[in-house]
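Purpose: get a first structural picture of the assembly so the mutagenesis plan has something to point at.
Setup: three entries, given in the order below. No constraints added.
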Amino acid sequence: MGTVHARSLDPLPMHGRDLGVNHDDMEGMEPEQATKQEILENRNVVVQHVNIEGLGRTKEDYLGYEIADVFNAKNLIDVMKKSHDARMRLLRLGIFKEVEVLIDVSEGSDALPNGLDVTFEVTELKRLTGSYNTMVGNNEGSMVLGVKLPNALGRGEKVTFQFSYGTKETSYGLSFFKPQPGHFERNFTLNLYKVTGQFPWSSLKETDRGVSTELNFPLWMSMHTLKWEGVWRELGCLARSASFAVREESGHSLKSSLSHTMAIDTRNSAILPRRGALLRINQELAGYTGGDASFLKEDVELQLNRPFLFGSVLSASLWGGMLVPIGGKPSCIADRFYLGGPTSVRGFGMYSIGPQSEGDYLGGEAYWAGGLHLYTPLPFRPGRGGFGDLFRTHFFLNAGNLCNLNYGEGPRAHLQKLAECIRWSYGAGIVLRLGNIARLELNYCIPMGVQSGDRICDGVQFGAGIRFL
Amino acid sequence: MATPMELRCWGGDWDLPSVHFESLIVLAYGKFAGAKISAKPIDWTWRTITATVPELHFEGCTVLEPMKILNFLRKQRFNADYELTAKQGADTMAYIALLEENLRPAMLHTFWVDAENYANLTRPWFASHSPFPLNFFVPGRQASLALSRIMLTKAESPYCTITEVEGKIYSEAKECLNLLSHRLGTSQYFFGNTPTSLDAFVFGYIAPLYKAPLSSGQLQQHLKQLNNLCNFCDVVLKSFFTENPPVESPPVIQEPVDANLQKLTQLVNKESNLIEKMDDNLRSSPQHRPHRSDHRPAAQRSKNSTPA
Amino acid sequence: MMHRVEGNRSLGKAAVAPSNTAVYEKSVVLNSTLPAIQSCKCSDVAHVMSRYMVLYINVRVSLANVCLRKSLHMLSTAAEPWPENATLYQPLSEEQILLSDNASSLAVQTYLRMCNLPVRVSCRANAEFMSPSGKVPFIHVGNQVVSELGPIVQFTRAKGHSLSEGLDDVQRAEMKAYMELVNNMLLTAELYIQWCDDTTATEVSRPRYSSPYSWPLNHILAYQKQWEVRRKMNAVGWGGKSLEQVYEDVSQCCQALSQRLGTQLYFFNKQPTELDALVYGHIFTIITTQLTNNELAERVQNFSNLLSFCKRIDQTYFGKPDESSASSRHSKGPSL
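Result (structure tokens, whole complex):
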């Protein structure tokens, strides 16, 4: 028996590193696999050795967990499948540039007749990788310098540093990532950052310098994140014409918060899913561990998708959130919720719903928003199977409300307040998927239920976002 | 004086004895007080980058900063403010503060930060007056010092840009020039017919602005509309800084002072002339007559300086 | 996308398009309206101005200065109503405010009382950051925000309230010169003593300045402020001064003020001006404030006419403890 190049025979799609390719386009291959299995499944084999070649700074014990399963293979198909799985697991660690699998009959004195040796030939990523970008916006430019140290200590630790030097401000971020050996999903991250954000809809400028630690772990079907964040926030007016309500919020504050996020995501794609559901619940408690800001914040996101007629997809989503200030101090403008814009309640200006003062939106302490979408492929399906598959047309109906609550009134009054003056809109447009992280939308919207003070965007609205209703 | 005082300063140009306004203050004061100061330009030496100008050397002492140099000169009995009353002394301080706060930022801006002036006038001048490798650094260093001073003293908040500050400092400076013009009125100098330290300061600040061939000079244009200030500059230049001074110059107008009045003035000065009070040595000792009045009988001087 | 405080706080946040050009647009509008105003008849002016006043919101003070001065002569007779809810903002008077800020705040309060313009004093921990110029105090009148005494004087003059109307040009020059003397010497000396004298900075200024903030932000902000002030001191040539020299400067400045005041009631005889408010604000605060030692107050107390001048203004304008501003002012003094 000669050397089997696992890669060439591998019946499964291999897209470990090309996350951009979507799973849902690969469905037709399964029957083919089944026929091969019949032929080969009876050959009993024993995996005697598993070697990893090409290791430099990576510690072997760290990889042991990832490849251990290969030893349990009982027949050739099993070996191939498990080798493939192990390869995927290795690639997922983000420390190898390339992993090839070689399956060969065992050689040497202790070789069994049906013994196999599996060899993983790995190429490690460089010790240090750098990137350089320039970004030009209107009236400003910035230079982004990134440095990444994959596998810094030999057990999958990753150190990344990003520095952006702009004409208006500089920001930086330093993060250290450490996975638990054998359980890549259980990991720990430490971040150190400074970011500056400008929020023209509130005439607000915010500079944050902070430290955060994050613990991620899977539990049954869900992903959990526990996080502590200590952040020094500096708020200022973006322009001298900022309203006095925003001016009053200016200054420094310290927020120390504990937060927990639970997410269950069964969708087949994050951006244009065909089926599956997403439930994300986030709660944040600030002030308990020190700092000036004290509040409890709850935020829920639910999205359901199911295939509909003629390749179209029906999608429904619901968001809701509430911020409860603790200790009698009013909430800070930077903590409150904002609603509106091309990726939430369409047809309204960016974050331009709800309480405002002299045209500066102040955000609200409670909100909800819901959306109903019908996604269809492009009419006549131009560019089918290629570029055209990145596009969808959609028809949508959005609704939502954002307001402040008076906590003396009780829950019934709150619900009533949120049910009054609902903003809603409907329309249609085109969605473009950008990789697997963001999407662009060009919509024609008709806003309804507009309240005084809201900024609307009647007609064509363009937007990009990573989170969308 | 056996050894003449030596002032390290930037050299002259544009019909001025020095192009540097702080040096000009000291030079003018020296002339007003009758001190023999030999200006020693630092041009084309390595001191262009190391020295703090103006710098006065006298018998082993080194004095920096115009204010301190003026005090030092007073201590050396070169006092141009001798005849001022206490209130006039107070006014001198106040107006000097006005110049510092309101005119100086705009002056620095006009010469060092305004791109057109800096590129066409200031940088070429200072570069051509510095020795070879330094000519690349001297102007830039001065310019960044000037900019940081303006930003630190006049920028309202850390986020202010220079363009936002410009409007403010120029309107302040124009107002300041107007006020000086009002204050001067039709008199020859700020306190009558004799120049004093205030005149030295005003001259030091406005003469470069008046004389320099600036390509972008909103402040200069404003100054040129104020005839009495321009006239003041011309008079000082003509009377004190011309090579062959006209006869009777400096024009010390020696009106016959009533002996009693003189004595009274002296008494008041001794009590309260705050400029003299700047150094403790003087407080306990009798006031020195300025050298400028040396021609007066020595007997009268000794009598005056020890009041009964 | 609705929280801005989201789990994965990425650098991408910086990419939000900025738009702080609005202020210029507003000032341009204002400038272009001026010729129109000037061509109106005088009787219409007040009406037109009140309409355009809306445009003045937070327009840069300097621009406002230029514009306001242009229209000043027309407005001098028509005094605009002063809104009831005019508010003066300053740092927390009990535990936070520092000598220099307190002096500036008192000067503005005194000036407004001299003009007979009522103002409510509001103490905010973030007053410094609320102020458009980063300096306290500032006043919020209608929808306009003006900070520091100089611009506030300009502002009230534009509204038809002025104390220096009766002065001639030379007197006005003199007044301005003495005001700059106070800023140049007294204010700088106060800042120097607060932040550059290590004992005062450690025992008084840093703890007070940072009192509203929690650890570790309090230390960060206090040192940041100290560093900022020291840089400024170096820029104006005060960095190399010794404490003794600074006290000597204060003495000199007070002597100049004392000489100028002489035996007059106010600096310009019978009528108080903004100079009187400024001098009172600083002198009164210095003599009523307890620092680590009494050196500063003692230097000032040598000038008896300045002391009686302060007493006189205190009695005339703060005699009746009727408003909140008076009570806050009295409580602040000895605590620093």
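The beta strands of chain B are 5-9, 37-41, 55-58, 61-64.
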